[in-house]
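Supplementary Methods, section 5.1.

A reviewer requested that the exact input to the structure prediction be made available. We therefore reproduce it here, unchanged from the version used in the analyses.
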Amino acid sequence: MHPDFPGPDMIDIHSHPLPGVDDGARSFEVAVSMCRIAAADGVTHLVATPHSNYSYTFDPDINRQLLAELQAKVGERPKLLLGCDFHLSYDNIQICVQNSKDFTINGTSYLLVELPDQFFPDHLDQVYYDIQVAGLKPIITHPERNPLLQRKPELLENWVSIGCLVQVTAQSYTGGFGTKARKYAEKLLDAGSVHFFASDAHDVRRRPPLLSRCYRKVANEKGKEIADLLLQKNPEAVINGRPLPPQPERSDLQHYSRKRRWFLSLLGR
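The structure derived from this sequence is encoded token-by-token as follows.
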């Protein structure tokens, strides 16, 4: 744990440190720096999640080899695990259903799924249902940054109601991706529709693997128990392939926010 960081150890389930496989780390030097930044920030486990989409070829054997090399260069911390930033397409889904452990987080049933920015496939509800019937648990990545969902948040609410989980980018919640993304992230958290915060880190400067600032904001706005849940306990369940612990009700989250605003008003802030 970083000496200046008062929170607990954290787990990052979405990052791009494997060098040369996508738009993440460009070299082993950058990859090692990313991992050391994460460790200094309080991250104990970092899941490398290369893209699998039309732009980047996903090769499980190469990913495993790179992960082993990177772990050897980094040392014991953070512990590196594999997953995939899985683009929803017909071909991808067919391959994943046959060889799901190549794509899921640490070989569990949890699968990060990335939505397109321009349009959604027809019958997406059915796609998510079929993924779950196949025994997988979809985790929708960074919906707060998706312009279609920013305009139609009811779509995400429906997917959560049918069993999908949601991962919000830590930097979005702290304002790094602009006002729209921040406000949508805050609304999702108020609604009880956030299950994980992750870095979605791609480099060491513009999108670094940092979570502690997000943790502090969640703890300040919603309480330490919620911060622990979203940055430690829920991710820990995922990497170990266990069900998530009980989640907070929307009314509980909103009640805490009201209490905090009332308290700050007394302080004249």
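Confidence is low (pLDDT under 50) at residues 1-5, 263-267. These observations are discussed further in the main text.
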